[in-house]
């Protein structure tokens, strides 16, 4: 589990195919930036842009993960060198500054607008139809591993459009600063919404 509070910005420095063919995954080498790795062991989880990955090798300032083709097909930002948001797995002694995050990307959104509004930045994202029902005013959403609050939701024919206000600090300490219209982003819905849907579904008669 994670909180959606980015601990550091890392950088994918190399990508190595794990085999031949269209179904092969890749091995990513990531420079950890300011993320301390002293307490990270092989097999531990680290979220990259909101996607939970397993550490398979490490040095004093970098670590390595293997990413399956399935994960690559369902995420954005893990298939090329560049900056990524990093967060180590939550411990029971940590502060829950964001919200409970599983590190499982539910779908991809597309940035529609990213522009200044007063002292903040407004981020508007198009979400696919299968995720639209989970997005609500003042609800939580994870964008590229960052826990954020939804300020507006408008339904569309293909899903919904939702808006978020980013304070300067969030922009400065995450990779969200690089977003632009057309950029695809990883989305994870609020964990509580999954359980609510399941409970409501259990009350319906079997078909």
Number of strands: 13
List SSEs in N-to-C order.
Answer: EEEEEHEEEHEEEEHEH
The appropriate CATH architecture of the largest domain is: Beta Barrel
The average pLDDT value, as a whole number, equals 94
Summarize the biggest pleated sheet.
7 strands, antiparallel
Total tally of structural domains? 2
CATH overall fold name of the largest domain: Elongation Factor Tu (Ef-tu), domain 3
Based on Cα principal axes, name the global outline: globular
* Gap between N and C termini: 35 Å
CATH class of the largest domain, please?
Mainly Beta
Derived structural class: mainly beta
Q: How many helices does DSSP assign?
A: 4
Low-confidence stretches: none
Radius of gyration: 17 Å
Per DSSP, what share of the residues sits in E-state strands of 2 or more residues? 35-45%
Strand order within the widest sheet?
10-9-13-7-8-12-11
Residues in helix, %: 10-25%
Description of the structure:
The protein has helices at residues 69-74, 129-132, 168-173, 191-202, and strands at 8-17, 26-31, 45-48, 51-58, 62-67, 82-88, 107-117, 120-128, 140-143, 146-149, 152-156, 159-166, 184-189. Helix content is 14%, strand content 43%. It has a 7-stranded antiparallel sheet with strand order 10-9-13-7-8-12-11. Strands 1-2-5-4-3-6 form a 6-stranded antiparallel beta barrel. The chain folds into 2 domains: 8-88, Elongation Factor Tu (Ef-tu), domain 3; 107-199, Elongation Factor Tu (Ef-tu), domain 3 (Beta Barrel). It has 207 residues and is mainly beta.
């Amino acid at each position: 589990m994670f909180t959606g509070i980015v601990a550091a910005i890392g950088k994918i420095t190399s990508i190595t195919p794990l085999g031949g063919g269209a179904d092969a995954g890749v091995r990513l080498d990531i420079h950890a930036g300011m993320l301390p790795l002293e307490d990270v062991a092989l097999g531990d989880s680290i979220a990259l842009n909101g996607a939970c990955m397993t550490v398979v090798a490490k040095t004093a300032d970098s670590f390595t993960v293997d990413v399956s083709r399935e994960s690559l097909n369902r995420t954005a930002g893990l298939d090329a060198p560049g900056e990524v948001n990093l967060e180590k797995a939550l411990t029971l002694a940590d502060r829950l500054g964001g919200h409970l995050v599983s590190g499982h990307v539910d779908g991809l959104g597309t940035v529609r607008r990213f522009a200044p509004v007063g002292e903040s930045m407004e981020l508007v994202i198009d979400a696919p139809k299968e995720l639209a029902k989970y997005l609500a005013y003042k609800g939580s959403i994870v964008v590229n591993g960052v826990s954020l609050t939804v300020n507006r939701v408008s339904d569309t024919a293909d899903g919904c459009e939702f808006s978020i206000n980013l304070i300067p600090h969030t922009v400065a300490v995450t990779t969200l600063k690089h977003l632009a219209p057309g950029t695809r982003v990883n989305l994870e819905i609020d964990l509580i919404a999954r359980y609510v849907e399941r409970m409501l579904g259990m009350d319906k008669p079997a078909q």
